[in-house]
Amino acid sequence: MTIQEKIAEQIKNNPIVLYMKGTPQFPQCGFSSKAVHLLKACGADQFVAVDVLSDAEIRQGIKDFSNWPTIPQLYIKGEFIGGCDIMTEMYETGELATLIQVALA
């Protein structure tokens, strides 16, 4: 299985996937920490977090997969949502909470 196939499978098989630096309990950058906080504030207590720092192949592979240069990256119901800045904007408008509630229903 290629790294691209592995990423596609993770995204397909889980309603919410956050590719981040570190873990939800111990984020390793401010943007990843904020992304986790935003998800939890929207009621996403259960989501898959993939630590890109523990796997160099995933770290580069997710950037290639999404054609997005930065981490964190959020996927909901198989759709690429964006990074921390987009998550923040969507949180402020209520759109992020709506997407999460639909994904978890």
Structure overview:
The protein has a four-stranded mixed sheet with strand order 2-1-3-4, sandwiched between helices. By secondary structure, it is of the alpha+beta class. 51% of the residues lie in helices and 16% in strands. The chain has one domain: Glutaredoxin, CATH 3.40.30.10. Helix 1 packs across helix 3 and helix 2 runs parallel beside helix 4. It is built from five helices and four strands, in the order H-E-H-E-H-E-E-H-H.
In short:
The chain has 105 residues and is of the alpha+beta class.
At the fold tier of CATH, the topology name is Glutaredoxin
Q: Poorly predicted ranges (pLDDT <50, ≥5 residues)?
A: none
* Distance, first to last CA: 31 Å
Q: Give the count of helical stretches.
A: 5
For the largest beta-sheet, the strand count, sense and barrel status come to: 4 strands, mixed
CATH superfamily: Glutaredoxin
Structural class: alpha+beta
CATH class: Alpha Beta
Please indicate the count of domains. 1
What share of residues is helical?
40-55%
Number of strands: 4
Q: How confident is the prediction overall: mean pLDDT?
A: 95
